[in-house]
Amino acid sequence: MIEPERIVELSRDVEVLAARGIADIQKITRETKLLAINALIEAAHAGASGRGFSIVAEEVKSISERVMGIADGLSANLRSAVSELSQVGQSMCFDVRGQRLADLALHMIEIIDRNLYERSCDVRWWATDASLVRALESLDPATCAEAGRRLGVILDSYTVYLDIWIADRQGKVIACGRPGAHPQVLGARVADAPWFREALRHPSGDRYHCSSVMREPLLGNAVTCPFSAAVRAKGKSNGEVLGVIGVFFDWQTQANAVIQGVRLSDEERPRSRCVLIDADHRLIASSDPRAVLGDPVRIETAREQASGYRTVNQRSIQAWALTPGFETYPGMGWYGVIEQSLPEETR
């Protein structure tokens, strides 16, 4: 694929070649004029016998002056035209590159949206699982253990989750899918966790809650994006709330896979940074391993504009796209952002 910067390179090549050619013309014209002047001097010394030659020399001098004027005018006009062409080329490079990066940023956040939509479906479906309902209805240790085994079977197939928990109405975790990996989870109190509080107050089984990206201490401080829903009597949408199911999406692994999958060329990747930020413009994922979760990311979005791009200090482009949501998942106001240093030839 031809890079847009090639236009700028070619315009500069034309400018150099044209300037070199005009300089050669001007040099030859000056030499011709000098020869004509010398011929006029010699003709004057020759007197009447050199009069005819002086007429020719005068004409040569006149022609050389006209050629010099044409060359000077051509040089000025060409310099102006090439300068404008270079500016147009640079502007085109910026627009082409900026729009492409904005499209890539949109694709990045769209993949996240589709992924999280599936999580919203999972949590509402599993909230109706009979074994989970029985465990919360009876709170019997054997029934709770059976619910935990059921969660383990689910996790064996759904590897995008770190764990799945069931908590009673008081916020005590009575079952989890990976008690061996996370022994501190069973019996833990999660009543103050946003994912638990929000799900507990939902008016219907059709509702779910998606929390912000966070570190979960009970999962070894792993970065996760919890989804939750109320578990209701008999699994009915309007049944009495018995407790809450929380599913802990493996955010770091899955988000990194999306970011690393952005279709940048090998030449672009070292001078690019792909990030995901939340509605408060805090970093939640980055292609830069040195980035810190929660760091602020400054973007300048236009009102009612779903995506866009801008220059940063005339040295880089920042492109962004707002989450469009997918199906019943409306999105959380997150953004995909790509920052890319401009190639030297376009600065």
From TrEMBL:
Any one annotated GO CC term: membrane
Name of the protein in question: Chemotaxis protein
Compartment list: Membrane
Alphabetized GO MF terms: transmembrane signaling receptor activity
GO biological process: chemotaxis; signal transduction
Entry annotated with the keyword Membrane: yes
Family from the record: Belongs to the methyl-accepting chemotaxis (MCP) protein family.
Highest taxon above the source species: Bacteria
UniProt-listed InterPro entries: Chemotax_Me-accpt_rcpt (IPR004090), MCPsignal_dom (IPR004089)
Signal sequence interval, chain numbering: none
Chief subcellular location: membrane
Domain Methyl-accepting transducer: 25-87
Keyword Membrane: yes
Annotated keywords: Membrane, Transducer, Transmembrane, Transmembrane helix
